[in-house]
């Protein structure tokens, strides 16, 4: 069974990583091909230079041969480097048993393969070995009278420059590869920046800081932004429709209950109050489930941001007056500008339940504080009452359980608060307060 980030072919990786791997693979492949191509070009160039020098020596030898039966040169052609013994730069002219050779060859002979003469009177390439077995590059010309003129260069004259050029080329390609890799990284980041901006704008929409995604986007991202805005519009329309249905349902049910409650309040209609208590329970349950339906509709919609300082101060003042007989004091420590992504009515409902619970159970002091933790806001409501033990806290964690059945509606409000917080992606935690009583920590998205 695959998760949301997997397919049948395996886990979907990062788009940035895939692009970078692709760019780096192309850069490496291009540099390898370029290195091989440049190496071949350099080898042909250096070999051409050597062949040209040997061909020039052969031409000089042919032009310096004296006419006549004897094999003899009209002038000395042992110019450097053909005058250095054992240098590998040799020349040799052979006609039958007569041999002329360079000073670098000394008394030794150069093993020259027999090559037929061509029609173009140009020297032909050949590979050979020197008197000491060293590899040589040969150029051989066979004249019409059977005279074989050969000139050679040591293969080190080709391999040495190629090795030096290859090292310099490799270093240059490595530097070029690093530069191209850096440029590719920058290009990938710049190319994906519109997607990062779109993600941030979607986060702003989800947090309630923005209602729509701006549609002025790059051409490739613009259709996606338009589709997202269309989805937001559709959700808003569905939310409005759901709110209308909930309002109609509330009106349709609350009116008969109000009529029934009014009828039961007449003298003699409900002597023991059981029916009135039942109607009140039905009214509370109706309000609870209608509130859940409205909040569930809000959970899928674009959320608005609500600042905390004002609602907390208003609720604190109202509940101090409500519990004036106990002399309750509610202190608030809310940073200015701190806001949550929550509907104001739902925020009032959750905070009202928690602060009212604290005022009900406290000895005389209630403290409300809030702080931003990561992307969430945690609101702590504490009191100096008797608090709860571990078993009681575990019991309250169960949905619908009340803190004390003798105190009307106390635990029911906690159940409502927990459900509302979870609809917004938050939660409610209960533990022991440093003040001695209960601490309720309400977590909501910031």
Automatic annotation (TrEMBL):
<dbReference type="InterPro" id="IPR003594">
    <property type="entry name" value="HATPase_dom"/>
</dbReference>
<dbReference type="GO" id="GO:0000160">
    <property type="term" value="P:phosphorelay signal transduction system"/>
</dbReference>
<keyword id="KW-1133">Transmembrane helix</keyword>
<keyword id="KW-0812">Transmembrane</keyword>
<dbReference type="InterPro" id="IPR003660">
    <property type="entry name" value="HAMP_dom"/>
</dbReference>
<keyword id="KW-0472">Membrane</keyword>
<feature type="domain" description="HAMP">
    <location>
        <begin position="189"/>
        <end position="240"/>
    </location>
</feature>
<keyword id="KW-0902">Two-component regulatory system</keyword>
<protein>
    <recommendedName>
        <fullName>histidine kinase</fullName>
        <ecNumber>2.7.13.3</ecNumber>
    </recommendedName>
</protein>
<dbReference type="InterPro" id="IPR050428">
    <property type="entry name" value="TCS_sensor_his_kinase"/>
</dbReference>
<feature type="region of interest" description="Disordered">
    <location>
        <begin position="114"/>
        <end position="133"/>
    </location>
</feature>
<feature type="domain" description="Histidine kinase">
    <location>
        <begin position="248"/>
        <end position="446"/>
    </location>
</feature>
<dbReference type="InterPro" id="IPR036890">
    <property type="entry name" value="HATPase_C_sf"/>
</dbReference>
<dbReference type="GO" id="GO:0004673">
    <property type="term" value="F:protein histidine kinase activity"/>
</dbReference>
<feature type="transmembrane region" description="Helical">
    <location>
        <begin position="20"/>
        <end position="43"/>
    </location>
</feature>
<dbReference type="InterPro" id="IPR004358">
    <property type="entry name" value="Sig_transdc_His_kin-like_C"/>
</dbReference>
<dbReference type="Pfam" id="PF02518">
    <property type="entry name" value="HATPase_c"/>
</dbReference>
<feature type="transmembrane region" description="Helical">
    <location>
        <begin position="165"/>
        <end position="186"/>
    </location>
</feature>
<keyword id="KW-0418">Kinase</keyword>
<keyword id="KW-0808">Transferase</keyword>
<dbReference type="InterPro" id="IPR005467">
    <property type="entry name" value="His_kinase_dom"/>
</dbReference>
<keyword id="KW-0597">Phosphoprotein</keyword>
<dbReference type="GO" id="GO:0005886">
    <property type="term" value="C:plasma membrane"/>
</dbReference>
């Amino acid at each position: 069974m695959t998760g949301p980030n997997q397919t049948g072919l395996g886990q979907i990786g990062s788009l940035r990583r895939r692009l970078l791997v692709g760019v780096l693979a192309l850069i490496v492949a291009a540099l390898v091909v370029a290195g091989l191509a440049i190496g071949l070009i350099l080898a042909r160039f250096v070999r051409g230079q050597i062949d040209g020098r040997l061909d020039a020596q052969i031409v000089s030898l042919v032009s310096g041969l004296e006419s006549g039966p004897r094999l003899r040169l009209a002038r000395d052609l042992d110019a450097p480097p053909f005058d250095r013994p054992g240098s590998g730069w040799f020349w040799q002219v052979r006609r039958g048993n007569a041999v002329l050779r360079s000073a670098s060859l000394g008394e030794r002979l150069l093993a020259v393969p027999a090559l037929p003469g061509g029609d173009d009177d140009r020297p032909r390439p050949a590979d050979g070995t020197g008197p000491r077995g060293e590899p040589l590059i040969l150029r051989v010309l066979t004249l019409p009278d059977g005279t074989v003129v050969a000139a050679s260069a040591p293969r080190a004259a080709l391999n040495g420059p190629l090795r030096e050029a290859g090292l310099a080329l490799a270093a240059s390609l490595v530097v070029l590869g690093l530069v191209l890799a850096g440029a590719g990284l920058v290009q990938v980041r710049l190319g994906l920046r519109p997607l990062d901006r779109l993600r941030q704008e979607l986060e702003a929409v989800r947090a309630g800081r923005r209602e729509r995604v701006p549609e002025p986007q790059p051409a490739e991202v613009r259709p996606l932004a338009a589709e997202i805005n269309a989805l937001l519009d559709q959700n808003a329309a569905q939310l409005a429709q759901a709110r209308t249905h909930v309002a109609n349902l509330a009106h349709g049910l609350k009116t008969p209950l109000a009529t029934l409650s009014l009828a039961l309040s007449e003298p003699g209609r409900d002597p023991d109050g059981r029916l009135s208590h039942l109607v009140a329970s039905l009214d509370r349950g109706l309000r609870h489930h209608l509130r859940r339906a409205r909040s569930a509709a809000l959970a899928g919609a674009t959320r608005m941001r609500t600042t905390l300082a004002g609602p907390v101060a208003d609720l604190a003042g109202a509940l101090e007056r409500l519990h004036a007989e106990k002399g309750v004091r509610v202190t608030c420590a809310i940073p200015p500008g701190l806001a949550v992504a929550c509907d104001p009515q739902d925020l009032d409902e959750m905070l009202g339940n928690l602060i009212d619970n604290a005022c009900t159970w406290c000895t005389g002091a209630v403290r409300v504080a809030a702080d931003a933790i990561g992307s969430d806001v945690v609101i702590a409501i504490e009191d100096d009452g008797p608090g709860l033990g571990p078993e009681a806290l575990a019991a309250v964690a169960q949905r619908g359980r009340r803190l004390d059945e003798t105190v009307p509606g106390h635990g029911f409000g906690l159940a409502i608060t927990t459900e509302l917080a979870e609809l917004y992606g938050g939660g409610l935690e209960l533990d022991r307060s440093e003040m001695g009583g209960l601490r309720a920590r309400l977590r909501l998205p910031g």
